[in-house]
Design a protein that fits this description.
heterodimer; A: about 270 residues; mainly alpha; about 70% helix; elongated; B: about 425 residues; 16 helices
Amino acid sequence: MGEEIAFWICALLAVIGALGMVLSKKAVHSALWVANTMINLAVLYALLGATFLSLVQIIVYTGAVMMLFLFVLMIVGVDASDSLVESIKGQRLLAVLAALGVGGLMASAIGAATISTVGVDAANAKWGGNLQGLAQLIFGRYLLAFETTSALLITAALGAMVLAHRERFTPRPSQRELSIRRFQSVSGHKSSLPASGTYATHNAVDTPALLPDGSLAELSVPAALRARGTLRKDMHADVAEVTTLAEGGAAIVGGSSDSNGATGGDAV
Amino acid sequence: MSALLAATSGLGMFGTDPIWITIIKVVFIFVFLLTFTLFNIWFERRIVSFMQMRIGPNRTGPQGLLQSLMDAMKLMFKQEIVPKAADRPVFFLAPIISAFTAFMGFAVIPMGPTVSMFGHTTPLQLVDFPVATLYVVAIASIGIYGIVLAGWASGSTYALLGGIRSSAQMISYEIPMGLSFVAVFLYAGSISTSEIVTAQQRAWYAVLLLPSFIIYVTSMVGETNRAPFDLPEAESELVGGFHTEYSSMKFAMFFLAEYINMATVAAVATTLFLGGWRAPWPISLWSGANQGWLPMLWFVIKIVFFQFIFIWLRGTLPRYRYDQFMRFGWKVLIPVSIGWIMVVSTVRGLRNNVDLSGGSLITRVGVPVAVLLLLWTLIEEIRERRAARRSEVDALPPYDAFAGGHPVPRLPGQEIGSRPIDILMNERNSTQEVPGA
């Protein structure tokens, strides 16, 4: 009874996830729907007695494969939505054919399962447990297929590495070497760059600090902002405002605590 | 006695509880984790304060114990801010995933042996099944989604960078983590947590499988985003990382999830390597130490011990640079774990199939080979470093007292030319007193 209730909940959620994946406009939302479907399928596997498969489904597919998809999609950014222009000719026709093929495969597999039912429980009982049975089959009867698959995956990973590999002509400078180079160079800052200015009205990164002579320290603003030209240069009004405020403040402080100010001055 | 042992071991005892006992256990785990988090935050602040010669929170409640409770209350009533650029549904979903999965992992952790609870004999563990340890890994891998999605949905560069870092980091460190489990599975002959605890009756796997233990402890720090591996929330680089844009209750959920995850990975380390709820050695000689409710105390002490290690690391080590961190994971931890698993499975396989006494096999073949390999790598490493340093020194230009137009001291290993000014400056620099020397 409990199993059936769980099946209907998870199956429904899995189908909703699949639909959501197709219908979402943002790629990241699609990826999330797929993750939802995968997790619900994992629960279904667990209900059917295949606990190992269900956990591996979550660890490998939800945790690693989907996460790598997300990793790539995230770099695209939050506002990006996919273009709906078909870039491969006849893509829709091929998709329909592939869907029909998968449907046919599934129908035949499910049909075959209903004709002669063994059931996971019976299969598990044969080896003394689900895990033991899987181990016997993977490392026994299907060893060659298993190893071939792993070889295929390793080849793919190796291929990706070869494609992404870039030969360096010179060794990469280490942190130490870069530091030595920085200190040996005549121009440029030896320490970190000056911080952006802090004023009563602005403390944003686009507000440069003031040098002792009143000119702007342009290095205190990030290079990207400098290149974009969004530097806040017109600060005379601000400086004037701060100055008047400071003068007023000094007057207030001087007025209220005259004697203290005097003794303080003496001490200095 | 043997009947008792049969009842306290094996997976048959799970799934037989009446529903109300299951509910008690669920509520207990929930309350335990919440209280432990409150304690843990206080514990961390006090220990870090001690290490930095400060006092830390000591005003609210006895010894400041209620400080984290008050902070949590305050956090709940703070203003909730959602950035304009945020992807709202995902922005809301992310902290829920984080907190929800954090609670789930603890379900398979054995906190004690079978006890009598209102007339029912039941193990102090919510649930166990043949692949329970993998369940913890699976839940952890779902938990990553919370952080990654938070980073993406915030619509902010800092948060996005934090999210990207954390997805790469957690995937990378899950591999050595999983590999460190393999040796334990091989020795325990089981993946179920309660059976692994039973298998450690005679010796802890932290002793038997020390390399696995070290690898696990290292990767668990990376997995929980704690210092020195806290790159997804590196405040000097990314403001707050993935939770930069989060405030109020949602931020509290991330905070909670981080501390519960610390407790969970510590509980897994305890279960897999430190004998779970079993009493540590001198106490374990007393036969009553492993019976009844008392083992829960050992369990909690072991978890707190791991929290102390977390805090100690945080108080001691500076943050890794991101590329160093990834290099360490992929080029040190993973190869070392694979090599170690090969050694373990070879010894295990020989013991199972060939009639050799394992001890003599290890001492005759394994240890000399391992020592030779280790020595060889060490010597190679030292040689390489020396060569690198020598080439660096060779690359130094001869001493120029006014290089770049400023008077400069001579660098160690730098040649002095024949210019009188250089010799004079070098003598002046070397005869000057160093303040404080």
